[in-house]
Amino acid sequence: MSQTREKFPTQVNSEVLSAVRALAQNEGRQIQALVDEALSDLVEKHNGAKPRAHVTGTYLASHEKYGPLYKKLAE
Q1: N-terminal to C-terminal alpha carbon distance within the chain
Q2: Is the CB of residue 45 less than 8 Å from the CB of residue 56?
Q3: What is the DSSP code string of the chain?
Q4: How would DSSP label each residue in 48-60?
Q5: Are 37 and 44 in contact (CB under 8 A)?
Q6: What are the extents of the domains in the chain?
Q7: pLDDT level of residue 2 (50, 70, 90 thresholds)
Q8: Segment 11-52, tens digit of pLDDT
Q9: Per the CB 3.0–4.6 Å rule, which of 40, 55, 67, 70 could disulfide with 51?
Q10: CA dist 28 to 3, 31, 32, 34, Å?
Q11: How far apart are CA 12 and CA 49, in angstroms?
Q12: Are the CB atoms for 17 and 28 separated by under 8 Å?
């Protein structure tokens, strides 16, 4: 993704903004980073993004190793 930044005016529910500020402070991050993450997640969600390759790989490895256990737990 491009690193070019662009300002845009918007308004946010005050309770949501308060929660985001607290989250940013608790994580030691800037609000801008959380907004970037949230907007990127929203775009992926609406584009029908597939799981990232490393997530799928981890799932498949786990299923290969623990498949019988998963089956028993599902019963």
Answers
A1: 44
A2: no
A3: -------------HHHHHHHHHHHHHHT--HHHHHHHHHHHHHHHHTTPPPPHHHHHHHHHHHHHHHHHHHHHH-
A4: TPPPPHHHHHHHH
A5: no
A6: 14-74
A7: low
A8: 999 999 999 999 999 999 999 999 999 998 888 888 876 777
A9: 55
A10: 21, 10, 12, 11
A11: 26
A12: no
Reading the block at residue 45, the tokens are: 């969600």
Q: Which two tokens stand for residue 11?
A: 């308004």
More confident residue, 44 or 9: 9
User: Are the C-beta atoms of residues 25 and 17 closer than 8 Å to each other?
Assistant: no
Instruction: Please count the other Cβ atoms lying within 10 Å of the Cβ belonging to residue 9.
Output: 4
List the structure tokens of 59.
């799932």
